[in-house]
Design a protein that fits this description.
about 400 residues, mainly alpha, Amino acid/polyamine transporter I, about 0% strand
Length: about 400
């Protein structure tokens, strides 16, 4: 991989705090606001345990990303890791394009979600809402990583405020009669239910893999990127466990699973206006789409420097220090996908592709470690960590394919 000159390199402006909140905002997103009901339907009153198990599963692959990003602190993420492990251009290119595809399709699905959320507040045709969002996000991403990271940081604080608001509402509500819930069978422990719930809850942790694609915009990346990934996963797990525990204190799993917007419904049941939660969900959607556009454009930038795609995608604007053509290309593809394609099945397919990426990442680290390559790295893991990452990712992929078909 060619080293970039200072005139054609990204701007390092993200410290550990900003990076951690960037990752946390990417992970939390809008998922917890809707996913909590589906997980409750599977795990019952042991939903917090499902989120703990999901956090541990995410941590195995997250730790593999920690060591790889510390060894090779370059954009393109999985494409770089596959290249260092096997030196097959076709595999590196395929891995990179899988990440780009997941970013584009995820952002397109999010853009459709934005149009639905916006309709609650503003009467605007769906296609205009999508067009306005895509152009606004493209402009923000083009302006520079400092503005983008600051926006993600602030929205993440608002998302956490929303979760704290839900916890506060729950604390003031009367607790459900758990003895009655047990008699109805909704609180019986089942490892099958907990594991199925954790497989589903795992998708509320996806996002940490996006962090490594801004590694060239992070200060002291060999140290801060691994720490940022670990902090993001740990804080997300803590937030999820607290929220799910408090929600189950005042709701039965049956009530949660029957609702399409369980947290909003719970706030209304607590005598408060659900508009606040709706507005936060809208911001969370915007946050998720912005991160996906940044991620996909940085992967293309890194792949261009590896000569896997056109070198024009590696050109950096001298003022904003952003890959202009890559960002515009990704944003336009997001717009096209959002306007023209049915995205329900594509969103599930994206999850399956992401798990394939995780399998590649963990296998890549295993191969690199077995060659015992020397090199600078802030963190070095025992081989059983990426092995567990492979096993857990394969198990989740089987579950996802079973759910899809």
């Amino acid at each position: 991989m060619d080293d970039a000159s200072s005139e054609n390199s990204l701007h390092r402006s993200m410290n550990l705090l900003v990076l951690s909140f960037y990752g946390l905002g990417t992970i939390i997103g809008a998922g917890i606001y809707v996913l909590i009901g589906e997980v409750a339907g599977l795990a019952g009153s042991f939903m917090p345990l499902s989120f703990i198990v999901a956090g541990l599963i995410a941590l195995f692959t997250g730790l593999s990303y920690c060591e790889l990003s510390s060894r090779f602190p370059y954009c393109a993420g999985v494409a770089i890791y596959a290249d260092k492990a096997w030196q097959f251009n076709w595999l590196s290119g395929l891995s990179g394009w899988m990440m780009v595809l997941t970013g584009i399709v995820s952002a397109a699905a999010i853009a459709n979600g934005f149009a639905a959320y916006l309709a609650v507040f503003v009467d605007l045709p769906r296609h205009w809402a999508i067009v306005i969002l895509c152009f606004a996000l493209c402009a923000t991403a083009l302006y520079g990583i400092k503005l983008s990271a600051t926006a993600v940081f602030l929205i993440t604080l608002i998302e956490l405020t929303g979760l704290a608001y839900v916890v506060w509402i729950c604390a003031g509500m009367e607790a459900v009669d758990m003895a009655s819930a047990v008699s109805e069978g909704v609180a019986e422990f089942s490892w099958q239910g907990v594991l199925l719930g954790s497989f589903l809850a795992f998708y509320a942790f996806i996002g940490f893999e996006d962090m490594v694609n801004v590694v060239e915009e992070v200060k002291s990346p060999r140290r801060n990127m691994p720490l940022g990934i670990i902090l993001s996963i740990a804080l997300a797990t803590l937030a999820y466990v607290i929220v799910t525990f408090m929600v189950l204190r005042v709701s039965t799993p049956q009530e949660l699973s029957a609702s399409s917007a369980p947290l909003a419904d719970l706030v209304e049941r607590g005598g408060q206006d659900a508009g606040f939660i709706g507005a936060i969900s809208l911001l969370a959607v915007i946050n998720g789409a912005l991160v996906q556009i940044i991620m996909a454009s940085r992967v293309l930038y890194g792949m261009a420097r590896m000569h896997l795609v056109s070198s024009s995608l590696a050109v950096i604007n001298s003022m904003t220090k952003t890959p202009v053509l890559a960002t515009v290309m990704v944003s336009l593809l997001v717009l096209v996908f959002a306007l023209l394609l049915p995205l329900d099945s594509l969103a599930r397919l994206t999850s399956a592709i992401m798990l394939l990426v995780f399998i590649i990442v963990n296998f890549a680290l295993l191969r690199i470690k077995r060659r015992d390559e020397a090199g600078e790295s802030f963190i070095r893991l025992p081989q059983w960590v990426p092995m567990l990452g492979v096993i857990s990712s394969m198990a989740l992929l089987v579950y996802q394919l079973w759910y899809l078909f």
